[in-house]
Amino acid sequence: MEPPNLNNDDFIYCKYTSDGQYTVSFAYKALITEQAIIDANVPTRFWRQLLKLKLHPCRKLFIWKLMHNALPTKELLLNKGLQLSPQCVLCKRHPETADHMFRHSEVAQLIWKTGDLGLHPSMNQHIALQRWVPDYISCLQKNDRHRYEFSSTVFYSTLWAIWLARNDIEFRKMNVTPHQILNLITWRTINGWMEKARIDDMVGS
Ligand SMILES: [Zn+2]
Fold this sequence. Notes:
57% of the residues lie in helices and 0% in strands. It is mainly α. The longest helix has 25 residues, at 148-172. It starts with 23 loop residues before the first helix and ends with a helix. Zinc ion (ZN) binds at residues 88, 90-91, 94, 100, 105.
């Protein structure tokens, strides 16, 4: 590595935009126009498959943030210097990290096991969330090819539903039960979302 020859302070820039400025609208545009950002740790195929799914752009953006560890979890906000309680609002026992909230908390485990996918997220615990997600999607594509679109939509929607519940508890002081979270991701609801996305596509094209 060569030493820098300028006397400037370090700064953060986004290498995918001409002026180096990262904005949420850039990320959003990248997703909906299929200019997927190729992350060295995530296979390109994963982004292509995500973009092709009949998922609302907000949900795709949510997955993009999750994969880039950019969701405003308490862990992330504390690392940025904000003063707040680190406690997970779903169990009120552990610090809130994305891994805990989406995979390892009792609520998350119950939802994954009881949901349509019957998934056991405690398996492969040593794998980071950002690796677990593409691995599982790739597994679905290999082993559940006929239902891939539906199954992967259920998978992403489960992550989304956990995040919605967490926000309802955190910001709206609501009492959300695992049963209510599961109701958000029933077969009927998912089919409704997919159908709506199809109609939106047809109207937009
Ligand atoms: Zn928890």
